[in-house]
Amino acid sequence: MTDHHSDIDSVSGKSTTGHQWDGIKELNTPLPRWWVISFYLTIIWSIGYWIVYPAWPLISSHTTGLLGYSTRASLAVELANLETLRGEKMAALAAAPLADIEKDPALLALARAKGRTVFGDNCAPCHGSGGAGAKGFPNLNDDDWLWGGTLEQIMQTIQFGARSGHAKTHEGQMLAFGKDGVLKPDEIVTVANYVRSLSGLPTRNGYDAAKGEKIFTENCVACHGDGGKGNQEMGAPNLTDKIWLYGSDEATLIETISQGRAGVMPAWEGRLDPATIKAMAVYVHSLGGGK
Amino acid sequence: MNKTVNPNELTSDDDYGPLYAAHKKVYPQSTSGTFRRIKWGLMAFCLGVYYFLPFVRWNRGLGAPSQAVLIDLPNSRFYFFFIELWPQEVYYFTGLLIVAAVALFLMNSVGGRIWCGYLCPQTVWTDLFYAVERFVEGDRRERMKKDKSSGLTPRRVFEIALKHSIWLMIAWWTGGAWVLYFSDAPTLVKELLTFQAPMVAYIWIGILTATTYVLAGYMREQVCTYMCPWPRIQAALTDEWALNVTYRYDRGEKRTSVKKAAELRALGEHVGDCVDCYQCVAVCPTGIDIRNGPQLECIQCGLCIDACDNVMTKIGRPTRLIGYDNDINIQRRQEGKAPIYRIVRPRTIVYSAIIAAVGGIMLYTLAMRSLLDVNVLHDRNPVAVKLSDGSIRNAYTVRLLNKSGYDRVIAIDADGPVNATIHVVGVDSVTPDRPMIVIPRDATSELRLLVTAPAESNPEKSIPVRFHVTDIGLGEAASTTDNFVSP
Question: Distance, in angstroms, between B338 CA and closest chain A CA?
Fold first, then answer.
């Protein structure tokens, strides 16, 4: 830019702004007046926002604006509206007999949607998202249930938990046969191999099946039942199936028999409302393993 | 319009001219002729379609909307005569937009700004508002005179009030027709008239009344010149063969009055056909002089052609001193060669081919479109479940779509692992191995589907499984593939 001399461009006949770069001059192309006025009006309009909406930060808060608008408050209103909208449907869910929910597609969809959300918030930390389970935390998709897999039984377990301290909780635990000195180490190895044989797993060489059966009958049948078929009253698992909560290898079985097992499931009654517990029971039941 | 600044107005080195230009009001004069007739016809057609289409009925059966063109936002459906589109089929609109854009390019390479001059809503409504203005206040000269005189006679007050009332009525009707595309038109009209329509309807009518009134009544050519991107894009897309409204300066120059031309021609001197009557400027709705060559502001409405033809006919000279032409032909005529017109050239062939291809694909997919569809989503966690007897189960979320106007009974089959059984949660079917589901008309239905395979039947980690859904009444079928996974 060499000078500010405004002149007339010989080609277009228009005035220039006086700006020039390497001999290229900038033409003065004035904006239409309505455009300029609109531009100033938008600036004035924006001042209105400062007045009616929250705008300026203060030391410990901010200007709230004449409308008292806040995104948090409007979110709260929307959430409250949502609750009202859901209210009727959740009331229908709360009123419906447990067994009828799966027969009504609309109620089933609602219970599954609600159950899935609540499951993610409360159950997934132990049981995994989707109820896949982990070592010591049962897979809820399979057909093997410690405390029973009917809708009522699932709901009861959710309500009161297992070894949760609740008055109505499921009780019963695997004793520590080794730690408490009930069985000697070699007896534990023998009975562990016997338990493996119940579900068709291979046993170690030189293991005495008759001795194993004798130990099992004396110590284990009380809870696990004849032939190790399990007992849902006591949460004693079926030892003849393919599903193992802690593991089916010999070392894990020896550990289980020696140290005992007593996994805890919290009671949800009082923490979740009855309709939500119902929805969750339906959800868990519908994962695929429900009886 | 940008005014050229008189150098005498620049008083000092710091004076860069005016920062903004005052709006110069345009007073287009009425004219008649071929292009005016085309414009009236297209205006009647476009406005007729726009205002009356919502009232056209189309029978889709009981419980379905009976409006031929309806955008049903609450239920996420778009109805167009025999077509009903769901939100996931929004790609049809992408195709439509591609066709529309390329059609615009094609028009442009054949005849310049055909869209701007004849079909653009801004042009159509501005033309209508000018017609009202002319009807109430008179033609160009009268309107200029009335605007200049400051006296407000009762008659003048009446005229102004009448003009704005008619404008507002048209604008209101325009906004009113808009909302009718979003709800059952006869019902909504009844509700609007009895003030029982939803607030949002009144708000939209208000907004569109205001925009129509302001854009067609006041902004007019300013919209085309300053607000619309198309003039800029159009200038970049055009080529030397495209026909544009052109002043044939080879024939028009040098401009000479009729009387003087006769004298000069008698002396054997060359004079042009343009008599400098300014009729082309008087009728121009954007207030430009077409004789200055192609300009950004020119919407190519062809009214200057009509105006000039009328003058040429009157003075007994050949018409089309202004016409659809290009610079190539002007130069050819100056060189004494015959003009050539190339409508068919690579550019127009390619544009036509694109339109045909995209349009063809759209029509094909629309015709082949299935009214029954199935989507399957495999459970992510757990991907596979081992059951107590050692068999493997996979769970899937199945979404069935019934796009037809009647309820369907659907049977589901899975074709995957040997001896696999399938079960739908919550469905106690009479045929346990072949679940049957009822899907209501025009609805989707989400199901949890379990596939269980005996332990020995699935040696591989993952095998494909095909889900078939069959309408057991009509035999229509759809299928999709997913995988069956072992832990």
Answer: 32
pLDDT, mean of residues B225-249: 93
Nearest to A288 among B16, B446, B450 (CB): B450
Q: What is the pLDDT of residue B17?
A: 59
Please indicate whether, in this complex, the C-beta atoms of B382 and A8 are within 8 angstroms of each other: no
**Count of C-beta atoms within a 10 Å radius of residue B66:** 15
Polymer length of chain A: 291
Strand partners, B409: B438
Triad B188, B190, B196: Cα angle to 5°: 75
Distances, alpha carbon A98 to alpha carbons A7, A92, A108, B28, B144, in Å: 89, 11, 11, 78, 83
Per-residue confidence (pLDDT) for residue B7, from 0 to 100: 47
pLDDT digits 0-9 by tens, B246-302 = 999 999 988 999 999 999 989 988 899 999 999 999 999 999 999 999 899 999 999
**Which residues pair with residue A20 across a beta bridge?**
A25
Residue B20 to residue A32, Cβ atoms within 8 A:
yes
Decide if A152 touches B, using CB distance below 8 A: no
Q: Is B431 exposed, middle or buried (0-12, 13-18, 19+ CB in 10 A)?
A: exposed
Compute φ and ψ for B309, nearest 5 degrees.
Answer: -60, -40
Checking if the pLDDT of B12 tops 60, the result is no
Do the beta carbons of residue B449 and residue B395 sit within 8 Å? yes
pLDDT, tens only, A210-228: 999 999 999 999 999 999 9
The predicted complex's ipTM stands at 0.79
Question: Could you tell me if B21 and A32 are in contact, meaning their C-beta atoms sit under 8 angstroms apart?
Answer: yes
Backbone angles phi, psi at B12, to 5 degrees: -145, 175
pLDDT at B16 over 60: no
Q: What are phi and psi of B468, to 5 degrees?
A: -110, 130
From the CA of A59, how many Å to the nearest CA of chain B?
40
Is pLDDT above 70 for B135? yes
Closest-CA residue to B398 (of B377, B381, B415): B377
HSE toward the beta carbon, residue B169, CA cutoff 13 A: 7
Per-residue pLDDT tens over the stretch A43-88: 999 999 999 999 899 999 989 899 989 999 999 999 999 989 888 8
Cα distances from B310 to residues A29, B26, B320, B322, in angstroms, run 36, 21, 10, 11
Neighbours of B481 (CB within 10 A): 11
**A70: alpha, beta or left? (left if phi > 0; alpha if psi -120 to 50):** beta
**Is the peptide bond preceding residue B254 cis, with omega within 30 degrees of 0?**
yes
